[in-house]
Design goal:
This protein has 1305 residues and is mainly beta. It is built from five helices and 100 strands.
Length: 1305
């Protein structure tokens, strides 16, 4: 990091005016070595100027040439370097005796390198003066810069600073020495900053340099003179280097003055070796005969190849000051039958340096259609390639697979194909057209080929011979001024330092040709434009900032291409920060550390409770400080900026807190016991003592027991307890907690352990499981608290876990199941039973404390198969998510029996799919009301830590949230006999910023059953995302909705047409409105015009579900109960503004029996866009709770619906064992045999048959408890639809449909 600063006091004057230093030819070099220049690749060395050395080892990039082995300018430059060093040494000097931070005036200084020790904290030497003032530093002997030295220039130009080291210069850490650095030997590593040239009479070694902005660049003397331009500096005038040699074809072969005849370019071969020809660097890429033209040429062998007049027409060179161009046939002969046989010519050049991968290049050439051409072609192009382009053909170029080659540059000016007209009055001159564009290199391209790459059969010919005096067949083009230019690179120089930051000049290396119409701008790290144009940009940079040079070129077709190249200006800002705890217990001593930059500097502290002490950059608050909130501040004054102090403050809350360890410690781990305990196959007992653990504790190979009353206190972030290889740990009435005020990692049960059991005295892996507590009300006796993850379970089968009667308090995560999805069921020896989870913001320890923090996830159950595991009797309060399931394709979870979720801010249960089954039954969900929502900051942290949760999840609180999944059979979602309650009545109507929703299901591809649930005071009771036929056999039955803004809301992805109609079968549900709040509510709502079918999918299929050839419907039997009087605040059915949906309230095909509020439902005041049976039917008898609501079509064995009103008036019971089979035959005209399996302990059973049309019992018959089937006669039953049920000990085993049709005899 480059640290910038100046000292305004204590300037050291020089007694001698520094003379000019005669660098001579050495001024051309950025790096110069009289022996070997070594540069490792990681240093990414580049030079603006030349590089010279007898030998060079490693990659060095130079923009002005590389000279080795004593050739070219190298010997003279080394001689001039010796003279320059001698001139510096002969100058009268002032001794420099101090080497700490200081400010110097212009002149000559001298010191011995052996005594020049930079202080440990580093030093800043500020050289002040004008841009014409000079500094010379003569260093005798060797000089090693062992600590950070920064030489800052305040108004002084780098070109006027000279460092003359008599021996070896070594810098291995961090040095910023701008100027011309001369030494006998130079060896640099670490960070090197500042604009400088390195000139060594001997070896010059650059290794492991910390490259600034991705590279380390040295500048020759000329470039150093350009550093530090004033803010209103001139525009950059240096053109970008043209990578094409002989771009205008002016350079001739030795001995050549004028063309010697047609086809006079050098010939080539498959290896692109050039032979013969009249010019250099260019060659003929095929069997064609391209021509070179020269001003002043006369007729040779009957051919005129002069300029401006020649055998092909009249055209001057493009810039008219040149004397040469070349010409090629784009096509000659119009040989388009057969295709691709037309004669054509290509020229090429091999570049001196291959193109760099992923770098942008601007490419252009200019063409002119010869006026004697017979026709014109639509295009010329340029192509880059890594291999020799030569082809032994005189036709179009093709690849090895006989495909046409594609040119990379084909965009032409509108003047393309414009002609000169000889003899015209006034004269019509030839027009040169630009073909240009940008090309991003793939890497190693080193050949440029120009010609016509079009297929003749697809080419466009335009006959231009009439009236132009043509004496030539074909389309002939002159070519001139070819260029390839790398887009410019950014650079920077720091010219001054102020309290506000480093005054920095941003510049770039060169300008693209004016013909490119390039535009330039600078952007800062935030993408804001800070400057435009070609002028150098001077800005003040307060801290390390990346600036981007944005170069945009526009090709002739108007297509723009943008290049973005960045440079980082490293600046240590003038600032101070304070680190330390913002909230803590007064049982601990607190330490706060200030860090000021740039160093060195002084610190001044203020604030804190009584007894606070200060020392340098450290403030200490003693243990036992008075509780309260304090503000501490620190003011930092940098020695380089004594007039610019910076102050930082920190608010600290000190609490009176009873640390666990202050209650006593019996044994210390390590110390009294080791951190790793190997039981060696035996049993190891932790007695009822208090253990303080300072580290990662590991148990292996044996049985471990903790006696009731044991307490494990973990002292710090790095502390944990791992039940490891071969270990089984059974702990009874045991606490695992933090020692004082810092969170610990938690308990880890590894995959190769034998498990972990925590509970009451007597609880083991083999003891019977206790019954579920009444919604977690049973008092827990064990505890895991103040951990990042209380219990991390790594394998469900090899390492069982029993967590019973345990408090999980103030942990970020309660139980986390790692290791991904698994198909093997978790063994029944595992259980999560009768536990209590809770959290409070200010009870969290350091590392997670905040006024807004809560447990993120209570039980994170992964994608395991939980079908054999008891998850009951738990109470989860004050967490963002109670239970999270990332269901795998084979996972199964049953969450049943008296779990309670209270103020789980986002969701009580969140499931990503249902795997092979998800059952949520017999649980209670108490949802938070709007004013209790978590803070945005907490939700931001949660979403960062748990990225898999759906977007928009933060805007609602939900009892059960299920999203996604697959259609793998027999996946089912069962939600049964649960309570979803928001405790504050009257908040559920209208729009809520924090909606309370009982159940949300979306994107479901499987069957579901919502039955016997209660929904009270919610924005939406049940929000269902339908997925067409995938939910076909699903039901919503016997649920009770009271004072919900919407009882059932249906949605699906909106489509122009639906592949299959979304189906919902809501039956026997009660929608009750008692609240008199003056806002409406809805029983069943359909959104987005969804064409829902309110029906049983099975009843809509083909035979045998037809009766006498006529389709028939299942009626809904839902009850809409508005108890708000004449206000009529409950709208029964609402389909917005979409087309009407059919809702069948009673059967229409057998007899018009009234079932359910038909008249009310047909009332426009009670429904929107629903068709409720036939409006002509006069019967409107109301369905009441007293009447039967039997189910005509059970989903399968185990999906049974009770009498109506059950969810509203009683608690559901667990379905009995046993099953009901099918009737055969069905439809039946005489006798049917019904199969079933009764529970083995059944005492009484009977068959009950009801008429579907009115629920009346038409047949009741006893069944033997040992029987498996029964045969009945239907001769006395009229045609119609019936249901049959088997009732065992007053419990319904199942209900199925029976179709009686005597016409089938």
């Amino acid at each position: 990091m480059l640290t910038l600063g100046i000292s305004l006091a204590g300037a050291v004057p020089a007694t001698a005016q520094a003379p000019a230093v005669p660098l001579g030819q050495a001024a051309r070099f950025g790096l110069l070595s009289g022996q070997t220049l070594t540069a490792d690749p990681s240093s990414k060395v580049s030079v603006l100027g030349a590089v010279g050395a007898v030998a060079i080892s490693g990659p060095v990039a130079a923009d002005s040439g590389t000279f080795t082995s004593g050739t070219g300018l190298l010997p003279m430059a080394l001689t001039d370097l010796t003279d320059a060093r001698a001139a510096c040494s002969a100058s009268t000097a002032q001794p420099l005796t101090g080497f700490g931070s200081q400010s110097l005036t212009p002149g000559v200084y001298s010191f011995a390198g052996s005594g020049a020790t930079i202080p440990t904290g580093g030093a800043v030497w500020t050289l002040s003066g004008s841009s014409s003032d000079r500094y010379i530093f003569n260093v005798s002997g060797n000089w090693t810069i062992a600590n950070e030295l920064i030489v800052a220039l305040n108004g002084v130009a780098p070109a006027n600073v000279y460092w003359n080291v008599g021996g070896t210069l070594v810098s291995s850490k961090s040095a910023t020495l701008p100027g011309v650095v001369m030494a006998a030997t130079i060896n640099l590593s670490g960070f090197w900053g500042g604009h400088s040239a390195l000139l060594s009479g001997g070896n010059l070694t650059l290794t492991s340099l910390d490259a600034m902005a991705g590279r380390t660049t040295w500048l020759n003397y000329r470039e150093l003179c350009l550093v530090g331009r004033p803010q209103a500096g001139p525009q950059a005038t240096t053109p970008c280097t043209n990578l094409i040699r002989n771009p205008s074809f002016e350079q001739r072969a030795p001995g050549i003055t004028f063309p010697r005849g047609r086809g006079n370019l050098p010939n080539s071969n498959a290896s692109c070796t050039l032979t013969g020809g009249d010019i250099i660097d260019w060659g003929n890429a095929s069997l064609g005969t391209p021509d070179w033209f020269r001003r002043g040429s006369t007729t040779v062998n009957g051919v005129l190849l002069g300029i401006p007049t020649n055998d092909f027409g009249t055209a001057d060179t493009r810039q008219q000051t040149g004397n040469s161009y070349v010409g090629v046939y784009s096509q000659n002969g119009r040989a388009i039958s057969p295709p691709q046989t037309g004669f054509r010519e290509y020229i090429f050049q091999q570049l001196a340096t291959p193109l760099q991968a992923n770098r942008l290049y601007y490419i252009e050439f200019f063409s002119n259609l010869a006026s004697n051409s017979e026709f014109s072609m639509r295009t010329l192009g340029a192509r880059l390639s890594a291999v020799c382009p030569y082809q032994n053909t005189a036709t179009v170029f093709r690849d090895a697979n006989n495909n046409l080659l594609t040119p990379h540059i084909t965009s032409h000016d509108p003047s393309f194909n414009s002609l000169a007209v000889p003899g015209a009055q006034p004269p019509v001159a030839a027009v040169w057209s630009r073909t240009a564009g940008a090309y991003r290199a793939q890497g190693n391209e080193q050949f440029l080929t120009i010609g016509n790459f079009d297929n003749d059969a697809a080419a466009t010919f335009q006959d231009i011979s009439a009236g132009n005096g043509s004496n030539s067949r074909g389309a002939y083009y002159y070519l001139d001024d070819v260029g390839i230019y790398a887009f410019p690179q950014p650079s920077f120089s720091i010219t001054a330092i102020t309290c506000a930051g480093a005054v920095t000049t941003l510049d770039f290396t060169c300008l693209l040709p004016a013909s490119s119409q390039a535009a330039y701008r600078w952007e800062d790290g935030a993408g804001q434009v800070v400057g435009t144009g070609t002028a150098a940009l001077t800005i003040t940079v307060p801290r390390t900032t990346t600036y981007t040079l944005v170069t945009t070129v526009t090709d002739p077709n108007g297509t723009t291409v943008t290049d973005r190249q960045s440079v980082t200006v490293p600046v240590t800002p003038l600032a101070v920060t304070i680190s330390g705890p913002t909230s803590s217990s007064n049982q601990l001593a607190l330490t706060y550390v200030a860090t000021g930059t740039p160093i060195p500097g002084t610190y001044t502290w203020a604030g804190g409770p009584s007894g606070t002490t200060f020392s340098g950059n450290t403030l200490t608050v003693p243990a036992g400080a008075s509780p309260g909130t304090y503000t501490i501040s620190c003011t930092y004054t940098s020695q380089q900026f004594p007039t610019c102090p910076r102050t930082s403050t920190l608010q600290v809350t000190i609490r009176s807190y009873d640390c666990e360890e202050t209650r006593g410690v019996d044994l210390r781990i390590p110390g009294d016991l080791p951190l790793t305990i190997n039981a060696n196959g035996s049993t190891y007992v932790f007695s009822a003592k208090r253990y303080r653990v300072d580290g990662a504790m590991l148990l292996t190979n044996g049985k471990f027991q903790a006696e009731p009353g044991a307490v494990f206190m973990f002292d710090g972030e790095g502390c944990s307890l791992t039940v490891g290889t071969g270990a089984e740990f059974v702990a009874q009435q045991t606490r695992f907690t933090a020692a004082c005020d810092v969170m610990w990692q938690g308990i880890i049960v590894t995959a190769d352990s034998k498990g972990f059991c925590l509970g009451r005295p007597g609880d083991t892996f083999t003891s019977p499981l206790p019954p579920p507590a009444d919604y977690g009300q049973q008092l827990p006796v064990s505890e895991i608290s103040h951990a990042h993850v209380a219990l991390r379970w790594q394998h469900p089968v090899a390492a069982p876990v029993r967590l019973l009667h345990t408090r999980l308090l103030h942990n970020l995560v309660g139980v986390s199941c790692d290791g991904g999805a698994t198909t093997t069921p978790v063994p029944a020896t595992s259980a999560l039973l009768n536990n209590q989870l809770d959290s409070a913001p200010l009870s969290f320890k350091q590392g997670s404390r905040g006024v807004d923090n809560y447990t993120h996830v209570g039980f994170e159950l992964g994608g395991w198969n939980w079908q054999n595991v008891t998850l009951s009797g738990n109470r989860l309060r004050h967490s963002l998510v109670g239970v999270a399931v990332s269901a795998g394709s084979s996972s199964r979870l049953t969450l049943t029996n008296k779990n309670e979720f209270v103020n789980t801010w986002l969701a009580g249960v969140y499931a990503q799919g249902v795997g092979s089954g998800l059952t949520v039954s017999g649980n209670r969900f108490t949802l938070a009301y709007p004013s209790a929502r978590p803070t945005a900051a907490l939700l931001d942290r949660f979403e960062a830590a748990w990225p898999n949760f759906v977007s928009g999840f933060r805007d609602q609180t939900t009892g059960l949230y299920v999203v996604g999944g697959t259609s793998a059979a027999p996946a089912r979602l069962v939600v049964q006999a649960n309570e979803f309650v928001q405790p504050v009545p009257g908040l559920s109507f209208g729009t809520s910023a924090y909606a309370q929703r009982g159940v949300v299901v979306a994107n479901l591809h499987y069957a579901y059953l919502f039955q016997d649930n209660q929904f009270r005071n919610l924005d939406v009771g049940l929000l269902v995302g339908l997925r067409y036929a995938g939910n076909a056999t699903s039901k919503v039955a016997s649920n009770f909705f009271q004072d919900c803004g919407t009882g059932i809301e249906l949605f699906a992805p909106k489509m122009a047409t639906y592949p299959a109609p979304p189906v919902l079968w809501p039956q026997c549900n009660t929608f009750r409105r008692t609240s008199t709040v003056a806002l409406p509510s809805v029983g069943i709502r359909v959104v987005d015009g969804l064409p829902v079918v309110f029906d049983s999918w099975e009843m809509r299929q083909s035979t045998p579900q037809y009766l006498n050839g006529r389709p028939w419907m299942i009626f809904m039997k839902n009850r809409f109960d508005d108890r708000t009087g004449t206000a009529q605040r409950l709208r029964y059915l609402d389909n917005g503004n979409a087309a009407a949906i059919r809702y069948t309230a009673f059967t229409t095909s057998i007899a018009p029996y009234p079932i359910n509020l038909v008249g009310e439902l047909a009332n426009a005041g009670r429904q929107t866009n629903f068709t409720v049976n036939s409006p002509s039917n006069p019967l409107t008898t109301e369905y009441t709770d007293a009447r039967s609501c039997s189910v005509e079509d059970g989903l399968d064995d185990g999906f049974n619906l009770p009498r109506p009103g059950r969810a509203a008036d009683s608690t559901a019971t667990t379905p009995p064992r046993g099953s009901l089979g099918y009737a055969s035959p069905n439809p039946v005209h005489a006798e049917a045999t019904l199969s079933f399996e009764l529970p083995t302990d059944a005492h009484h059973a009977e068959l009950v048959i009801r008429a579907v049309r009115d629920g009346r019992v038409v047949l009741r018959r006893p069944v033997s408890v040992s029987a498996h089937q029964i045969t009945i006669s239907v001769a006395e039953l009229p045609d119609g639809v019936y249901t049959y049920s088997i009732v065992a000990d007053r419990a319904v085993l199942g209900t199925r449909r029976l179709l009686v049709n005597h016409a089938t005899r």
